[in-house]
Each structure stands twice: as C-alpha cells, then as structure tokens.
Write a structure and sequence with these properties.
Elements: H1 15-22, H2 25-33, H3 48-55, H4 58-67, H5 82-89, H6 92-98, H7 123-131, H8 135-157
Helix pairs in contact: 1-2, 1-3, 3-5, 4-6, 5-6
Length: 158
C-alpha cells in the first residue's frame, strides 16, 4: 500500500494545496517530484499556483513557473491566472517572476519585500507573552511572521 499524493479531501484540496498554504517551497517541490498533480483545482477553483500567488509566496511561484511552466495558464473560478492575481494584490516580485520586465511592477534589488511586515512585538514582549500564557499573541506571531521570516531566510540564502 503506497501513499496517495493526489488524495482529495471534502474540499477537493490535495496535499499540494496544503503544502502551498502552510509550508514552503521545499515541501511543494518534494510533493511535485513525488507525483503530486499540480493541475488539480480545489472546490473553490484554486490551483496550487494561484493559491501561491494569492498568498504572496514568490519562492513557490518561482518553483512552479520554472519546473511546471504550464501552471502559468491555470485560471481559478474567477478567471484569474497567477499573474492577474499577483497584479491585483500588488505583489511586484511575483509579477516580475511571471512577467519579467513589466515596467508597472518594478522591484529594486535592495528594496525590502512589502509582503514582509515589520515585527509587531519585540522579543521581550514575546518572551513575556510566552511566560504568561498569552496564546493569542504567540499564535499571531507564528501566523504572521513565520512565513515572512522563512521568506527572508530563503532570499538571504540565494
């Protein structure tokens, strides 16, 4: 008995949809290389690449366009492909990946990525929240900053 990398839940979401939503490019890459179907839309009509564009995840979008170029043309139920979504969200880095040279969505190399918000809490505030069991603050930090920190680390490593 093997693993079904294309199993769909009640929302027609596959492991690849969840990898895009909650994890990062390494897990997405592993699933694709293991046979996950990147052409499967969920019940909302979202494909993994359209979800990555909506989430504002340049490394995942870059992986898809470099390794699964046909994903560029996949459109969600609203009729938007990843480029249209990135333009609507003003994710300039993603627009540049999908439409290099687009002069309306420029990104300076030394420019801070606008999708990476500055920290809301200091280290001291986070430590105090942890000591006092202030779960909502810790949860907010994880939800908002983990992806941003991971994106920064990935970009630094390049």
């Amino acid at each position: 008995m093997g693993v079904d990398f294309n199993h769909q839940d009640e929302q027609n979401r596959t492991p690849l949809h969840y990898a895009v939503q909650y994890y990062g490019v390494d897990f997405v890459k592993w699933l694709c290389e293991s046979g996950a179907n990147w052409k499967t839309a969920d019940i909302s009509g979202q494909y993994p690449i359209t979800e990555a564009a909506e989430k504002g995840d340049p490394p995942v979008v870059k992986y898809f366009i470099e390794n699964r170029p046909a994903t560029r043309e996949l459109k969600n139920k609203a009729g938007q492909n990843a480029l249209a979504i990135a333009k609507a969200c003003r994710y300039n880095r993603i627009v540049q990946l999908l439409d290099p040279g687009n002069k309306d969505y420029r990104v300076k190399e030394d420019e801070e990525d606008p999708t990476i918000a500055p920290p809301k809490y200091t280290l001291q505030q986070l430590l105090r929240a942890s000591e006092n069991g202030q779960v909502p603050i810790i949860k907010e930090f994880v939800d908002q900053r983990y992806r941003s920190l991971a994106t920064k680390l990935i970009n630094v490593g390049k």
